[in-house]
Amino acid sequence: MHCFIGGCNRPRDYQGHHLKTRGSGGSDGSWNRLNLCRIHHIEIHQVGNEAFIKLHPESESIIKRGIKLEELYQKWKRGLISEQDVKHESLDVWKFIQRVKNIDSFI
């Protein structure tokens, strides 16, 4: 793995960053995480997503897509949309929901 920011080649110094934090209800879905080196991980926490995008324009599409997909997951989780609606929007999120449901059935 490597830092998501192009041109950053800090070796094996990566950390997972949640776009919507776990503390605020964010999921562990792959769309909600970025692999960043320690330096960029600290930076995104210090400046926030919007300022980070301005500093690193190459990150805009992935960050905005991740936030959109996390919002889709959260709407399903709150019962505001159906699984079929989710499946229509994103197979990645729908597959994650299937895994979550299977894990919950064992608990």
What structural keywords apply?
107 residues; mainly alpha; 4 helices; elongated
Tally of alpha and pi helices = 4
The helix/strand class is mainly alpha
Total beta strands: 2
Percent range for β-strand residues: 5-15%
Could you give a short account of the major beta sheet? Answer: 2 strands, antiparallel
Ranges with pLDDT <50 over ≥5 residues? none
Task: Report the end-to-end length measured between terminal Cα atoms.
Answer: 32 Å
Proportion of helical residues: 55-70%
Calculate Rg over CA atoms. Answer: 15 Å
Could you describe the 3D structure shown?
With 107 residues, the protein is mainly alpha-helical. A two-stranded antiparallel ribbon has the order 1-2. The protein has one domain (14-106). The model has no long low-confidence stretch (mean pLDDT 88). The protein is built from four helices and two strands. The chain has helices at residues 38-55, 60-77, 83-89, 91-106, and strands spanning 14-18, 33-37. The longest helix has 18 residues, at 38-55.
Short description:
The protein is built from 4 helices and 2 strands. With 107 residues, it is mostly helical.
